[in-house]
Amino acid sequence: MNPAAPSGMPADATPGARAQAWLTRFETSQRDGPPAATAALFDDACYWRDLVSYTWNIRTFESREAIADMLAARAADVAPSAFALEGEATEAGGVVEAWFTFETRVSRGRGLLRLKATPDGDRAWTLLTTMVELKGHEEKKGPRRIKGVEHGIHPGRKSWLEQKDEAHARLGHEEQPYVVIIGGGQGGIALGARLKRLGVPALIIEKNPRPGDSWRNRYKSLHLHDPVWYDHLPYLPFPDDWPVFAAKDKIGDWLEHYTRIMELDYWGSTVAEKAEWDEATQSWTVRVLRDGQPLTLRPRQLVFALGVSGYPHIPQIPGAERFEGVQVHSSKHRTAEQWRGKKAVVLGSNNSAHDICAALWENGCDVTMIQRSSTHIAPSDSLMELALGGLYSEQALAQGIDHHKADLIFASVPYKIMHTFHIPVYEAMKVRDADLYARLEKAGFLLDFGEDGSGLFMKYLRRGSGYYIDVGASELVADGRIKLRSRVSIEHINPRSVTLTDGSELEADLLVYATGYGSMNHWLADLVSPEVADRVGKCWGLGSATTKDPGPWEGELRNMWKPTQVPQLWIHGGNLHQSRHYSQFLALQLKARHAGLDTPVYQLAPSHHRR
């Protein structure tokens, strides 16, 4: 007998037969049995991550008890059914992996199951369930696409352009948007595209004049550090000759054209001044300045899509007001050419600091990096091959893994155990790039691989900082072309120099603060109120109790893409991958509310860590 075959299954049972048998038991148990019986289908160590389909929330359940509690509260209302294997299941390392589809009372879904054989039969190790579409509210695509023209003779017929321009002119004036999205960068644009396809009236407002300006306005040398396969926008992938790492201005142009092609309602040169919740009307009042003219919007739902961070953090250093050179936060730094033959000091040692230092050095500037604490360095080629290549690469595409499938595979790994998947990647990186790491440490650079050795992406999720994807600057640091001062900071600033905490002094014509950003809920304090910001709590982070990510453990990113403690207020952000992937689930939550569906949120996350 095959020792891997679970109890009750034939010795030669295929992975597909085992997966379908489990799915059948899972469906039947939810319909006919007590929640504890369904939870018993899971392994002792188990995880069920739900993206909206069961919970109208984004939640991960990390025990049989938590699963049973959720099912007791939600299974009858959800009415799950039609669980069916999708494609061929596979088995590797004693784990069966299977895609499946299913339905609920109001939606259709897709999921990914991982099974382990036990003496008592197959048990689920991880389960991902995701909402794909709402029944009766599907996107008008494929066979549902609109005709586009009404054939026949119609006196006074208006053209497509006339209709579009009239609708655009009415929105925000005669007609109020159901959703206002504050922030017209990649996050706001991706969400706007999802809502447009779902027929939800949404207006994106952005302080910059043009879509893509948030990229155009960054420092001249900026390129994406993530590869093209990871960065597609919803519905409209980059062309197949798009560079692996695109320049900022190229991304800016793509976002601008995308906004037009997707026919998004987008107001540039529009500043949100204040937002207030009106309890009587159950709507928001949003005061804006559009091209300098005051206007009031009254949406039912308000989304803050202002990136992954809050305001730039600029340290208060004695003597700053006496500096005779130029001092600027990295978010405001633009070009390096004018600093040829000058001296620059860059405070910080993460992505922006390295990029800016490298550009300054390339342009003939004498530049010194001040490293206050350790930094994780991940060489780009190694990151591509070891960490991303299996899901986001030409090789992945050749194996049938496009970005849609890759996103779900990525999402199926629970945050609680995600670090265990990443530790071997960075152990391999230590070996592969041992020479670079040795030379960096010899130069005095403080290296780390995360507090548990899990590397870049876990740092990104936990704190959004503390790393550099090396695209060349590390070589400049290792060989001393970018000068380095580590284990120190700036004690005070002089008219033409800075004094460090070790008493040494550095001449400076330019001082760049590559010192990061605050929490996203700082935006809420100013645009809504400090009370609302504190009610929402900290945004981002998992509660891992690592540096800059205090507990308690939450199991999901705080407040992102899901209901918050403030009704009808949402937070949307992240990198291009997250903006694409999670905009789908935020859009479905908003569409359900727009359609008047009942959306009982299971286990609304408590707020933690005020500003």
TrEMBL record:
InterPro entries: Auxin_biosynth/cation_transpt, FAD/NAD-bd_sf, NTF2-like_dom_sf. This is NAD(P)/FAD-dependent oxidoreductase. The keyword Oxidoreductase applies. It comes from Pseudaquabacterium rugosum. Keywords: Oxidoreductase. It holds the Pfam family Pyr_redox_3. One of its GO terms (molecular function) is oxidoreductase activity. Its EC number is 1.14.13.-. It is an enzyme of class 1 (oxidoreductase).
